[in-house]
Design a protein that fits this description.
heterodimer, A: 135 residues, mainly beta, nine-stranded antiparallel sheet, 1 helix, 48% strand, globular, B: alpha+beta, three-stranded antiparallel sheet, 3 strands, 10% helix
Amino acid sequence: MATSTYLSNPVITINAVDLSDQCTSATISQAFDQLENTAFGDTARKYTAGLQTNSITVELYWSTASSETYASLKSLVGTSTNITIKGSSAATSATNPLGTLTGGFLAELPVAYTLGELATVSVTFNGGTWAWSES
Amino acid sequence: MALRIISTRIGELGAIYEPVDGINVEALIAGGFVEEVHTAGGKSAKNKNTAPDAGNNPKE
């Protein structure tokens, strides 16, 4: 069985800023509302796609150094931007597709300061359109 | 007005940055990733400090 293992290779950009070296996880959710269109004559329920509900949640170390996490995110709260992610820095291809969330809205910047741990932030960009590119 | 890259997190330092649709340019400027640069227009500005012996003073 072929699988894809991501140890350290994924590349993620938020608002075109490469934050891969601050990122520890990214979770993509691409979903459509499921609208029923079953009618008389059908013998089983049927559905069609409604509006998309997309999001991406990214876990980052919270660095306030120059050109790091704070500088990247501080002005994005309450605005929409683009997020891209792919499995490795190699060229985009069918086996290394580039995912792009266009117009994801950042509603909050919840920074976690915990005694004895590196500060982190978990940001979720909601909405927008999601697309995979293979070239 | 063009944007110049001043952080390697965006691209090559000094290169002109051309944002795609959806990118929040104001956030990039505020974060210190790009800076605005004023490009020269089609007509060059007159140099008021040109020395008289430069040969381009119309009063001579």
